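Q: Got a minute? One more chain.
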Amino acid sequence: MDPKKLADFSANKLAPDVAAKYLREIVHKEMPAGLKRYMEVELFPHIHLKVAKGISYSTAHRWLRKEGFDYIEHRKGLYYDGHKRPDIVDYRQNVFLPAV
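A: Always. Here it is, folded:
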């Protein structure tokens, strides 16, 4: 995980499409990778369990889903058309409406 990108994301400095891409990347790659790393480096040695190959990413995905993490894309369905921009308001008031 890129610490600078995470800091920019947390401070809401990323562009919306870049932020959405980064969030998808975290959810689909970083969270299972983090769970896998935690289990192999922290948990298994702490309970004196030796696992030959560790856990797979699909197992980490399955465990996260079982714990309530869903991999869905949230869509609000909002559309911003800029109807309140000053140049649009000026055009509407001074050109379009008088012509109608």
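A: The chain is about 65% helix and 0% strand.
Q: Perfect, thanks.
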